[in-house]
UniProtKB/TrEMBL annotation, chain A:
This is ABC-type maltose transport system, permease component. The gene is malG. It holds the Pfam family BPD_transp_1. PROSITE patterns: ABC_TM1. One of its GO terms (biological process) is transmembrane transport. The lineage of its organism: Archaea, Methanobacteriati, Methanobacteriota, Stenosarchaea group, Halobacteria.
From TrEMBL, chain B:
This is ABC-type sugar transport system, permease component. Keywords: Cell membrane, Membrane, Sugar transport, Transmembrane, Transmembrane helix, Transport. One of its GO terms (cellular component) is plasma membrane. The chain crosses the membrane at residues 26-48, 90-112, 124-141, 181-204, 238-259, 286-306. It is a multi-pass membrane protein. It is found in: Cell membrane. The gene is ugpA. InterPro entries: ABC_transporter_permease (IPR051393), MetI-like (IPR000515), MetI-like_sf (IPR035906). Belongs to the binding-protein-dependent transport system permease family. Pfam families: BPD_transp_1 (PF00528). GO terms for biological process: transmembrane transport. Residues 86-307 form the ABC transmembrane type-1 domain.
Amino acid sequence: MSMSKNILGEIKDDIVHGAKAPIRAGREVVGTVRALRDGRASYRDVGLTAGATLGAIAILLIILFPLYYMINVALAAGTGAASLYEEGFFASPTEYNLAAFEWLWYESGFFFRPNPQDPTVSMWEAFTSSFLANSLQLVIPTVVFSFVLIVPAAYAFSRREFYGRKPTLYGYVLLTQVGGGISIAALIAIYVVFNQLGILNSFLAVAILYAAGAIPFNTWLLKTFMDNIPESYEEAAIMDGASRWRVMWEIVLPLSKPGLAVVLIFVFLAGWNEFILAQILLSADKHPLSVGLYRLIDEFGTPWGQFSAYALVYALPVALIYFFSQRYVESGLSFGGMEG
Amino acid sequence: MSFSSEKADRSWVAQRLPSKDDQAGLLVLPGLLTYGIFMLYPIMYLIFLSFTNAGGAEDLIQGTYDFIALDNYGRLVQDSQFWTSMGVTWLFVFVSVVLKIFFSIALALVFTHDRVRGKRYMRALAIIPLGLPPVFTITVWRQLFSPARFGIVNEVYINIAGFLGQNPEPIGWFFNRWMAFFSYVVTELWLAYAFMLIIIVSALQDVSSELHDAAKVDGAGYLHRFVHVTLPAIKRPVWFASILTGAASFQQFLVPFIFNMGGPRRQNEFILLYGFREAFQSPPRMGLGAAIMVIALIFIGMFMWINVKKGRLAEGLSDQ
């Protein structure tokens, strides 16, 4: 059963497959040249394919230009704003160095706050008050809460019939794409409610808020995943005398791994990227990485080298996870509701 | 496994499981309650707030505010800023959705084309913007649109103009209403195309190649085949994605917030930003802000309603 294969294993296969891509491409080029020489392929055909591929690559490069731009700025010598631009953008910086990353490590508050070189403060203390530590304290409970709330509900929606199932699911579907908008629209009220309950400035409360916002979309997403698992597997287990809960734990959940992976990514992204709620509901010493990044932006002189270094270290791990699980995300987003 | 045997399986399982299992409802309840407490309760509270003249948060906590019924709404109808922000938000929804559809279909056609080699890798790279933190992405775009000469968009513009023998001044993107609006649209396009690309690509892969081949044999050109074979097949997913992405455009908050606070002179203040500013500016006007947000929520709900009705997102709910 390929579906139950370990996700990490599949991702590893993807990486290996991807790393071998240049070899395959090289072989194809050699094969094509031979075919041309032997007259097995027409020049027109090969030319069109090469042209189309190059065109597609050019389009891709234009689309992804902003990413290249950030990496370039982060590595450019100096951390000031002006150094890169004196000769115009298209002139490459004359010198690259890691000054911006040194700043990131020692002074930015990303990993340590205050400076880890300060002898009066231990590394651990400096780490625990960093933006990164704050972000982790937000994201980990967000993921845990989301899973506890989403997974059983998705299973129940997919496999059981119960009172109020249809209207609830209908409501969830209605709410799928409005999470962000609702939390900003309700921000005023959320702020006041949090204040009244005395839970302002609590990582846990904000984490539950994030998890709550993620419930409709992700529950529905996971439900559509589980709908596609044939019920015959469960039938076999029930025939062998497995209880209903064992069927859920040992059959349905393992088979839903790709779906669980997508939900994990979405929930993690929601907690990791959000910043407007965190900025309003948490005090400055509890701000996560996203707010730290935002605070670097200054109308009159954002330190671009520093900003880029910060942003890259902040965004890159997530982007990489995203890249390697892209297959699951694609299959997750191309859910049903479109057939017919 | 044939279709009919799967149906038989289902009835077999159904016989073993109770037809109604209200215990299973308990699995849904925690999520529902959490959502209710953290999202629906604040929304109720928001609606209540919109009928009061509450100023700041202290007012609400100490109860120093009055119930003023529909006064906030009446005030909004007469406030020119409300109409400005409604107008500019809807214009943004319209312009950005149309561009997103064209751009994403074009990209999807390129990245699924038979002649393009390595398209799976290209697609994996092309959807990376979906995984990037919005604060990061939007700030990069703000930098690209920097009004100074070194802003990359200005740089390209000046280079092209120079090539044509002219020597224009750099454009002050954020200081002119429509220039700023244009920069928002481009940024939104970049933020959202990946989502649509995924949906359209998966729809394109379901288009039957037999139909295409048949059309080819009949001598239909590429454009003909696109209009008569491809387009009808991807109509539903495109419609579905447009509504979702339209809802996203309507809820756009961070782009105007980070670029120039909806400026210049609040001319590009989208509805959520308008409400946010009224509620948190100094002096704060939370009651009025709440009324704006309630109106925004009504429109957001409308998008979802249309999608469920027309896009039949909830299809399959009824036959279970």
